[in-house]
TrEMBL record:
Co-factor(s): Zn(2+)
Residues given in the record as Zn(2+) binding sites: H66, H68, H214, D302
Binding site for substrate: E95, R147, R159, H187, E217, D302
E.C. number: 3.5.4.28, 3.5.4.31
Keywords assigned: Hydrolase, Metal-binding, Zinc
Co-factor: note: Binds 1 zinc ion per subunit.
GO molecular function (one): metal ion binding
Name recorded for this polypeptide: 5-methylthioadenosine/S-adenosylhomocysteine deaminase
Task performed by this protein: Catalyzes the deamination of 5-methylthioadenosine and S-adenosyl-L-homocysteine into 5-methylthioinosine and S-inosyl-L-homocysteine, respectively. Is also able to deaminate adenosine.
Family: Belongs to the metallo-dependent hydrolases superfamily. MTA/SAH deaminase family.
Length: 433
């Protein structure tokens, strides 16, 4: 049976010739796919359900390309610290106590926040990933999931963790009706020794899946990599064969010109996480140079404990603003480019070619903003408003695969009250253990 419906009289962010444009009109969704978007139709075929799009801006759902959802349980636990101290003294000791249920409720809290804030796809690197997949399945969100592996442990434990990462990818890639895909994820070059890292590259080859890792996040990491392996992280990972696979690296803050050229040559995507990089004082990535070199730069929040929210509108705004401030060039990252980083480039960087744009043939993952509010008026340039003026709070409706998951700001798929209560209880349980 065909499931066909139409948005009438909305404003839509669509791909333009060289940047997104806004058009008024109608959009038809059929079996979870956009089949028409354009001028208002004269008449609606009988029996087709209509959705009134007036006073709403429809745009592609936001794509969060790097994070650790369950870390919402550690939001506010260990602020104002540099990365290594934050990880070693605060995050890792607490994460060692996480149970599968903690990961479930922490991830549910994050997915609730992301869906209500207009994120329709998220990438997640963590442990207990079967429980994250459970949340993705139930909530209706699209997810790219991977068992992140820290290899600072005996060989036997390394073997077990690698096996878990492979088993998870095999079991879950393509699950939830195709909404869940998998990647292979050694945590970083500084937590996975070279021979161990190479095993992930081999696993990615065997499974024909892309790789994801943290890379060049802090100056200290780069210096330590040079001291330990005689190479900066990009050359080190190139040597380990990572870039022979489709790859996405998180952060890429400390890159020289030669490294940018290498990433461009291998078509390695960079997930830019401006909020987290600022909070951990890691630095500011060279985004204008990366974009100019042809690198696909997308946006991520990183975990909620280093951000400290999952508002992708905030990341867009930060991406558009900080590079102007740092370079002294107001055109460094225009609003239209920041929007593409959060949508189209996000989709490309996680290897999903059917999301990130509102166009016929694309999956119906989209959001509607209430643009009738003081801070979004007058309607001069709605792409500008989406980046410079809007926030997660402006998201009124959300659809994934054509199914509505947020209606008038309320999540339809998760029990909001239960998620809030269980997440709070999970955090209190962690403190007692
Ligand atoms: C092995 S699961 C993921 C692992 O990553 C840690 N993490 C969270 N944020 C960051 C970051 O910015 N850089 C490096 N590692 C990070 C998290 O605490 C988990 O242990
Ligand atoms: Zn991270």
């Amino acid at each position: 049976m065909s499931d066909k419906w139409i948005v009438r009289g909305g404003k839509f962010v669509v791909p333009g010739d060289d940047k997104p444009a806004v058009i008024g009109g109608d959009m038809i969704v059929e079996n979870g796919v956009i089949t028409y978007i354009g001028e208002a139709l004269n008449a609606v075929p009988e029996g087709v359900e209509t959705f009134d799009g007036s006073r709403l801006l429809f745009m592609p759902g936001l794509v969060n390309t790097h994070g650790h959802a369950a870390m919402s349980l550690l939001r506010g636990y260990g602020d104002d610290l540099a990365l290594q101290i934050w990880l070693q003294e605060k995050m890792w000791p607490m994460e060692a106590k996480f149970t599968g249920d903690d990961v479930y409720w922490g991830s549910a809290l994050s997915v609730l926040e992301m869906l209500k804030g207009g994120t329709t796809t998220f990438l997640d690197m963590y442990d207990h990933m079967d429980r994250v997949a459970e949340v993705a399945e139930k909530s209706g969100i699209r997810a790219v999931l991977m068992r992140g592996v820290i290899g600072l442990c005996p060989e036997e434990v390394q073997r077990q963790k690698l096996a878990e990462a492979v088993a998870f990818a095999k079991d879950y890639h393509g699950s939830a009706g195709g909404r869940i895909t998998a990647m292979i994820s050694p945590h970083s070059p500084y937590t996975c020794p070279p021979d161990f890292f190479e095993k992930f590259v081999q696993a990615a080859h065997d499974l024909d899946l892309p790789l994801h890792t943290h890379m060049s996040e802090t100056r200290r990491e780069v210096e330590q990599n040079e001291a330990d392996f005689g190479l900066r992280p990009v050359a080190h990972l190139e040597k380990l064969g990572m870039f022979t696979r489709p790859s996405l690296v998180a952060h890429g803050v400390h890159l020289n010109d030669e490294e940018i050229e290498i990433l461009a040559r291998y078509q390695v995507g960079v997930s830019h996480n401006p909020g987290s990089n600022l909070k951990l004082a890691s630095g500011v990535a060279r985004v204008p140079e990366l974009l100019k070199a042809g690198v696909t730069v997308s946006l991520g929040t990183d975990g909620p404990a280093s951000n400290n929210n999952l508002d992708m509108f905030e990341e867009m705004r930060l991406a558009a603003l900080i590079h102007k401030g740092v370079s002294g060039d107001p055109t460094a990252v225009p609003a239209s480019e920041a929007l593409r980083m959060a949508t189209e480039y996000g989709a490309k960087s996680i290897f999903l070619d059917q999301i990130g744009k509102l166009a016929p043939g694309m999956k119906a993952d989209f959001i509607a903003l209430d643009i009738d509010q003081p801070h979004l008026l007058p309607h001069t340039d709605l792409v500008s408003h989406a980046v410079y003026s809007a926030s997660a709070k402006d998201v009124e409706h959300v659809w994934v695969d054509g199914k509505q998951v947020v209606k008038h700001g309320l999540c339809l798929t998760l029990d909001e009250e239960e998620v809030r209560r269980k997440a709070q209880e999970a955090f209190e349980g962690l403190l007692k253990r």
